[in-house]
């Protein structure tokens, strides 16, 4: 199907390295891939991500859309 001689060589079992360890095997045009971040050590995927609240923006958003009660944040309800 593909024209011969114009495509790079395909490595169906290319190894992905992170911090010197093989973390997964993928198909690639290179036999080895070296990465700094992958889903196994990224804070978003591991659940260690922290929300940085700058000037109360996150709290204000949570309060605005009813995701957090005013009593839990220590505020008083307006009458």
Automatic annotation (TrEMBL):
Gene that this polypeptide is encoded by: rpmE
Assembly and interaction partners: Part of the 50S ribosomal subunit.
PANTHER family, per database record: 50S RIBOSOMAL PROTEIN L31, CHLOROPLASTIC, LARGE RIBOSOMAL SUBUNIT PROTEIN BL31C
GO aspect biological process, one term: translation
Entry function: Binds the 23S rRNA.
UniProt name for this protein: Large ribosomal subunit protein bL31
Pfam families from the UniProt entry: Ribosomal_L31
UniProt KW Ribonucleoprotein keyword: yes
A GO-annotated cellular component: ribonucleoprotein complex
GO molecular function, one term: rRNA binding
InterPro entries: Ribosomal_bL28/bL31-like_sf, Ribosomal_bL31, Ribosomal_bL31_A, Ribosomal_bL31_sf
Classification via Gene3D superfamilies: Ribosomal protein L31 (4.10.830.30)
Keyword line: Ribonucleoprotein, Ribosomal protein, RNA-binding, rRNA-binding
